[in-house]
UniProtKB/TrEMBL annotation:
Top-level division of the source organism's lineage: Bacteria
Species this protein is from: Lacrimispora saccharolytica (strain ATCC 35040 / DSM 2544 / NRCC 2533 / WM1)
UniProt protein name: Rhamnulokinase
Leader sequence segment: none
Molecular function in Gene Ontology: ATP binding; rhamnulokinase activity
Gene3D superfamilies, per database record: 3.30.420.40
Keyword annotations: ATP-binding, Kinase, Nucleotide-binding, Rhamnose metabolism, Transferase
EC number: 2.7.1.5
Amino acid sequence: MEKYYLAVDIGASSGRHILGTVKEGKLELQEIYRFENGMKQKDGQFCWDVESLFTEIKEGMKECRKLGKIPLSMGIDTWAVDFVLLDGENRMLGNAAGYRDDRTKGMDKKLYEVISLKDLYERTGIQKQIFNTIYQLMAVREETPEYLEKGETFLMIPDYFHYLLTGVKMQEYTNATTTQLVKAETGTWDYELMKKLGLPERLFGNLSMPGTTVGPLTGAVEQEVGFSCQVVLPATHDTGSAVMAVPLCPVEEESTEDILYISSGTWSLMGTELSKANCSAESMEANFTNEGGYDHRFRYLKNIMGLWMIQSVKKELEEKGEAYSFAELCRMASEEEIASIVDCNDSLFLAPVSMIRAVQDYCQSSGMAVPKTPGQLAAVIYNSLAACYGNTVKELEAITGRSYPAIHVVGGGSNAEYLNRLTADRTGRTVYAGPGEATAIGNLLAQMLAAGEFESLKQAREAVYRSFAVKEYKPDSPGLPFYPAKGKPVNKHEQMEEK
Ligand code: LFR
């Protein structure tokens, strides 16, 4: 009898249901459902439509029933920082505002009246992002303080969906750390900080680690989807799940502290794994974050604007009646000579009315060639991303004192060959690209670890290495298949010599 696990992985632009199973030490995946997502304007605010997302979650679950593949457990991961507030009758107070809404504008100043940025970083280890939950909660306090008064529960988006599925309210640790309200040292809520900020402590219950069983589906959900299973917490922050699925080559005995990763999607999250948070002033100045991970490891990384920039340009072109696939944009970009580079992390690019204009204005005002055609725009964006990766490698090496010969690119963006080549060239490091479904795989791994399919995260990462095709890009060389999806694990060095 096969044992199935279901990952529901919801990103900022799409969601997917993936069934996973382990066969002879290898992971097998089956995508059974996919749906669209995006922030939409509601009541003058950029919001997530949590109601329709929950309908999609259940629609996807029904596919399990149709296929006759009933999972032992399921878990949901999403983007981070966003949340809902529930009143005493478990009704949502206000909307599920999205992190690109500008309600947080000026909230940093308000926050620093109470605590300095330095103190905040020393306590939480979280990088400043104006959209972090802490700034969003400051905006709630300013605009609708009654929500805080009436609120009984604060739930991050995946916690809310888990609650709708089971009737059990649990607050998962990895995602909670992105609120900037969790102490890096202890991994528990910083109630002292909440008190200073006027945030009611009752909203925040005990944190639960990935692998914890939330409970079975409610009777109503069971009836609707046609089966029952347990809900088990993955790392509910999608980046936490993605980094769990960074493949580890067993014969090299490398540890993830020796490698760099980029979780590449709407955002590019670039960093390494640390066993202890680095909350130093140097780290704060370079704007690195220490997000909580599986087993209390830390994802020491930087948010880089990511494929959001090219996704936005593609959408804008479509609206003008010029539709291109990402592959076409990459091909056109590769034929361009334009050398302009923008700073992807400039807040200009977070939620501009027009991404095309934002990129053009940036180039214009800094005296660089202004991209005009879709190919030129794509070339500037992809080259700028790769340049940003290059700077981040240098910063990471300076701060950690380690040197990193390779970068593992995982997530949907790892399929962008052109970007992988640029990344290898501009970082001077070997790039290993894949697996593309890292986030869903990581979600599955947490459930599989809880069920005893693997003994440790290391073992699970080695299974990822054996199970999925990865491509290798050396600086100045085209991408070649690196380790095979099937067959025995191969020693990286031996294979390099063979080529
Ligand atoms: C990636 C991600 C990042 C987080 C951003 C906003 O999907 O979760 O890790 O900083 O979205 O939540």
